[in-house]
Amino acid sequence: MFRNFKIIYRRYAGLYFCICVDVNDNNLAYLEAIHNFVEVLNEYFHNVCELDLVFNFYKVYTVVDEMFLAGEIRETSQTKVLKQLLMLQS
Questions:
Q1: Which coarse location class applies to the principal site listed for this UniProt protein (predicted)?
Q2: Other CB atoms closer than 10 Å to residue 54's CB: what's the count?
């Protein structure tokens, strides 16, 4: 617990993905959101690794912007997110 928030995290092959949420929010919903985010990154970067995140941080921010809005889950469809990302890339 951090102030009035809790930190939810998940580890994938040495990478930690963390989200700070309200204490009343559902843990499982955000664990699923993290998993969904990692799957989109994996598809977008074709097997994502730490270097992809470091050297393409602006692309990672674009993925975050497509999936989350004002700290809330905006889109859960991986297909829609990837389609939008490919459109933005072209």
A1: membrane
A2: 9
Q: What is the CATH number of the domain that holds 68?
A: 3.30.450.60
The count of other CB atoms within 10 Å of the CB of residue 39 is 15
The amino acid occupying position 7 is: I
Q: Consecutive 10-residue runs of the chain (90 residues): their mean pLDDT? A: 88 92 92 96 92 94 92 90 91
The secondary structure of 21-64 as a DSSP string is: EETTS-HHHHHHHHHHHHHHHHHHTTS--HHHHHHTHHHHHHHH
The CA distance from 50 to 6, in Å, is: 25
- pTM over 0.70, yes/no: yes
Q: What is the dihedral of CA 17, 12, 32, 28, to 10 degrees?
A: -80
